[in-house]
Amino acid sequence: MIDVELYEAKTLYPFQEKxxxxxxxxxxxxxKNFNLLFQLPTGGGKTxxxxxxxxxxxxxxxxxxLILTHRIELSVQTSKxxxxxxxxxxxxxxxxKTIPDQSEYPCFIAMVETLNNRxxxxxxxxxxxxxxxxxxxxxxxFRKIFQFYEGCNILGVTATPLSSNKAxxxxxxxxxxxxxxxxxxxxxxxxxxxxxxxxxxxxxxxLKIGSNGDFTVNSSDQVYGNYFMQEKLLFAYEEVAxxxxxxxxxxxxxxxxxxxxxxxxxxxxxxxxxxxxSDKDRKxxxxxxxxxxxxxxxxxxxxxxxxxxPTVQTIILNRATRSLTLYHQMIGRGSRKLPNKDQFxxxxxxxxxxxxxxxxxxxxxxxxxxxxxxxxxxxxxxxxDLEFEIEFEFPKxxxxxxxxxxxxxxxxxxxxxxxxxxxxxxxxxVELSLSNxxxxxxxxxxxxYQAIDFVxxxxxxxxxxxxxxxxxxxKSTPNYLKYLIETYNRxxxxxxxxxxxxx
Length: 503
What we know:
CATH topology of the largest domain: Rossmann fold
Strand content: 5-15%
Number of helices: 22
Strand order of the largest sheet: 3-4-2-5-6-1-7
Mean pLDDT: 87
Helix content: 40-55%
Number of domains: 3
Distance between the termini: 67 Å
CATH architecture of the largest domain: 3-Layer(aba) Sandwich
């Protein structure tokens, strides 16, 4: 049972009231089967805004509202805010199998996986829904729910309108994006704390890109777990943030545990937290962090959403990421404003600021929504020279069925420079790469159909290689890369068909 008596309703700021009016007006103007995406930076009060929207829709339309979240903390936080503004609601968690009393509730809050299971058993599990609100709408997991609510409005809310899966852009499901106040405007208006940024050059060679497009946990643990990186982290903290309440974000558990050990040896108050902790242990750690002056919390993949501790004074990015969304989520944990806090510190130990720009910088989110591939390419630019150097890491499941040793032994960058030194056209490096993929796939395949399956599984690696080639020749336009990939795949399949059809 949620204790709502102690939860005071948050009063809307003027810009939040204006936003609520704009979104409700947009939904009414366009009628049903219209889906709207709303962007607002972390700390701008998304929960307060969409809770008020839910209340207005319930009052004016006499329809129910369904709010989707992906973490129980977000569900509870939303439920408390709704109760505080007079909206009776029910959380649908794994314990809720049926809702015999659903007529009593105008609003439901559901974990996405739980609701998906219930809807697959009974598509009328919740009746009379007119509006579906999706919190943290950039997560791709919500798509599976949309098929059940095609006659409703869907309102997605996110700080970064970029899909967690670049192959499934948000504009596939949302008709329009409304952009809220910018980070710089919220800072100038006194709603967010400003970030003072400290960057340290770090050698990230050894990082590998995984199939999800970000640096892998294993390679990150190897880079950040070594003695020199631990010393650099300790030096940065002691130089900039000693005595501050500090959050340290890491990519892997091994690194975070090593950070805890390193800081404890120096006598600092630090604890580690990751997603394997029980609810009880997690609450214990977070309570300690909240009540301990100068506390340091080193964490992995658990505090980017659904965590709100305004007293945080310093954020340390002890990791590199290629995700703009994750970059903003991590920094946003320090941006809460307090009467005695109008600034926080950001220490970047992953070249992330160089990759994405300052947290406060203007971003054209409309461009990101309409042309996500172009938007990301222009910012990552193959991570300057870093991604030019790093290796591709294959998923473990793929390596169990395919011997990648021949492919991993080949470097298109080395092949290109060798061609140039010998007076051969650089394009020959692409032909050598094609032959390398061909030999590896042919050796692993029983027939042509299996070979095509392997080609499809290797698309991320093929794209990675050809991006490295375009970097070599300084011709990395999206159209040219697309042409290269299409030609490469066509020729690869032709070579395989010629050999495997004959066998």
